[in-house]
Design a protein that fits this description.
single chain, 7-stranded parallel beta sheet, alpha/beta, 11 helices, 38 strands, disordered C terminus, elongated, 24% helix
Length: 473
Amino acid sequence: MKSRIPKVLHPICGRSLVLHALEAARGTSPAQLVAVVRHERERVVDHLAEHAPDVLIADQDEVPGTGRAVQCGLDRVSADSGTVLVTYGDVPLLDSETLGALVAEHEATASAVTVLTARVPDPTGYGRILREESTGEVVGIVEQKDADESQRAIDEVNSGIYAFDLAVLRDALAQVTTDNAQGEMYLTDVLAIARSGGGAVRALVTDDAMLVEGANDRVQLAQLGGEMRRRLLEKHMRAGVTIVDPATTWIDAEVSIGQDTVIQPGVQLLGATSIGEEARIGPDTTLEDTEVDEGASVVRTHALLAEIGPGASVGPFTYLRPGTVLGARGKIGGFCETKNVQIGEGAKVPHLSYVGDAEIGEGTNIGAATIFANYDGVDKHRTSVGKHVRVGSDNVIIAPVTIGDGAVTGGGTTVRGDVPPGALAVNDTSLKIVEGWTSRRRAGTAADEAARAAAKRDNAPGSSSADGKEQEN
């Protein structure tokens, strides 16, 4: 990957490669789920502890190879019998249904080993499946570097994903050596050992080769991400979601969307975002870990860890920061920013405002260009605005303050103290006009010329100003 990040921690569609693999494995309802780790162990283990704490960790030692990795993993398995499913941390498209089918086939045929295979147009780099001509049973798997010319021509390849009889697997691994071109313990050697012991080795061929594709560089990572994205979009559309332009729409794996919601072009739905039914999202909107209830509209908005209530509207050109909760039928309009604020049912912050660290009651309207000054340079303070309050335009509300239910603030007011319910808060300053200021202080400028022309026009005979002066005289 040419990266400081371990390969299995590279993300596509909102999850790391290893979490995609674990999600698929978890869908088979295993009694135990074990991850074998080695490269960048601490980073991988920390990632699993945060996102998949139910997973048991097994450490591979200095002996190389997939066979040794599985052997180390079996040290964490407490059962003595049953089926062991082996998969990999870099096959993100593999799903629970395919793994479940592999286990079902394995147990229905009472096989010692069942391998998941695929037929691909270019098998270079893959282990080839060797079958017995008369029965079609698998007699072995030969790796690319160990294969002869005829074997390299085989197009059925090993996915590296198996269902094993546990007892057979333990016994066979004890017989696997490192006597091969790579000097590794090959897991594939188990197949021949199991067969020599009288066990049946069979294969389940998937008709979807992309399910077993792995990522070994950034190009393959992008290709897998693009294919997963395409499949996710198709899944949502077939479930009743309208996606106007799939080419410009990005939806992560954990996102949920209700029926009859419309996703406009240029939308990114990331993380654990959930959208209710009959909502309208976009265009040009990014929602990350955000909840949008039914019937809401979100246009040209960036939101993170926010909640948008039913029938509410947001945008355009709006930024919802973590902790924003907008109530039913509420509104956060254009060019607004909010953070850690609860906005009640039917309340509105229509435009050009910043609201942070506050509670706003139902039915309240926050006038244009209002700022909630919540930070004093050391601490954050909260503001409480009651129900059905009318905050005038161009207000500065300096926290901590409380504005009571039904109160009103005048335009241009700086609110420095509590406002009782039903009261009017206004800064009483008179308007001062200094006549002729532009001519004295800006002589010769365009503004001066415009002012002189207006004065001449207003004083011309026949003008309303001139007529007024003549009548006064």
